[in-house]
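Supplementary Note 3. Input sequence used for the single-chain structure prediction.
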Amino acid sequence: MSLFMPQSEMWDLPLPGERGQRHIPHWFGNLAFAVVGFLCKLLWRYRVDGRENLRAFKDVSGVLVVCNHTSFLDVVFMYLSARPSQWIRLMGRDSLFDNAGGLLGQALSRVGAFPVKRDSADRGAIKRATSMLKSGELVGILPEGTRRGRGTAEMKLHSGAAFIARMGKAPILPMTVRNAELVKQKGKWLRFPKITVEFGQPLLVGDFDFFPKEERLDACTWYAMRECFALSQRIPAEEVDMAALFPSAKDYSAAFAEHPVERHSSAEVAAALAKAKQEKQ
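The predicted structure, written as discrete structure tokens, is reproduced below.
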């Protein structure tokens, strides 16, 4: 493998792999994890809660990890939280891959990230993410698309997350990066609060089939994001004010109050997926 592989080539290569198999080389990702992980541990004393919910799917199934987006550090801690035994392949806006003459894109690609065209149905990105999930990889998505607090007039929810999970036949795992938004606030100095990454319990897209077909993906993404904000705010999901967070999105609170979605543990879902996988062999 050459030192500077074309970015587009890495987007379509798997991250997991043994010696002799064609995959994204691990040396850069391991170096990034060691250096960045050490600095983040030193500066923000970060910890990961609920990591067993992610580990349960190792060597069993792909997982779509979704997170609310409050800071530029969210993706850093998403990546660090899965290492060293797993890798989250992050979907990032395409303009990032052209920064610094493509050097940032080279670095992002080497840790498994791949681009998506924002505010459009990027079939290439969807196809890549779906393929990764079917291959048993972890894919990380920020359904809000942009960070809160950047002056955006209105935050939107993008249902592509649920669509990718359905196409990739993978569970959705909500997570949050708590206190990252305090690191750099407008007009203030850099701060170093203690940061906590937390993984919740998995969701199955099929559990939302009681909705009309045209609403299932929107409702599933809405529910997944409510779980993320519940983790972030450390309150029951039913207490999250989704109408205030996403004024333009349909509020499904009443629908879920009337028809609660079944709760699953990661161990339960992983066991069911492992059994189904074994039966197919």
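The chain has eleven helices and seven strands. Residues 7-280 form a domain with the Glycerol-3-phosphate (1)-acyltransferase fold (CATH 3.40.1130).
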